[in-house]
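Researcher: Sequence recovery benchmark, item below. Answer with residues only.
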């Protein structure tokens, strides 16, 4: 295997490694984030039920002469819980908009870009390889002609041109 082929194989392996291993892992991470978000949303729904229960208990306790102090305490607990809940909902919104959505969008763009770049690289590589094969074939024909010719120097300039083109494609 030539050095050029080794470099080509390594380059393609980098692209394929990103597309086949890293990006799927990142997709899985986004999916887990969505599950986490869904679980926290479920906690929020349960917390609202808890908040409503605290308020209702506070109202019942406030109506009673002997439980007024307990009712005030329950209202204070409900207020603290409401504030925590509002903060959690704000964090959830940020988590969704700033992290999950952005990451998912960038991942999709990255996959499209890498796929297109890999195809372009492979196409360019194929084109250069085909050009090199053509140049090698022309060079072989010219050498055969010059060996069988009475004037071998006649083909010398053309052979130099083909060799120059061939070296240019190896770069």
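Model:
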């Amino acid at each position: 295997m030539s050095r050029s082929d080794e470099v080509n194989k390594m380059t393609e392996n980098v692209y394929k490694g990103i597309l086949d291993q890293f990006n799927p892992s990142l997709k899985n991470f986004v999916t887990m984030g969505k599950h986490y978000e869904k679980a926290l949303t479920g906690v929020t729904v349960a917390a609202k039920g808890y908040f409503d229960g605290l308020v209702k208990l506070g109202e019942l306790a406030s109506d009673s002469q002997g439980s007024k102090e307990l009712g005030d305490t329950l209202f204070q607990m409900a207020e603290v819980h409401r504030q925590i809940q509002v903060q959690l909902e704000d964090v959830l919104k940020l988590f969704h908009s700033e992290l999950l959505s952005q990451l998912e969008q960038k991942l999709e763009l990255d996959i499209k870009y890498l796929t297109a770049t890999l195809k372009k690289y492979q196409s360019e590589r194929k084109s250069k390889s085909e050009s090199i094969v053509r140049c090698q074939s022309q060079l072989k024909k010219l050498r055969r002609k010059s060996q069988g010719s009475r004037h071998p120097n006649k083909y010398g300039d053309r052979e130099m041109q083909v060799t120059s083109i061939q070296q240019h494609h190896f770069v």
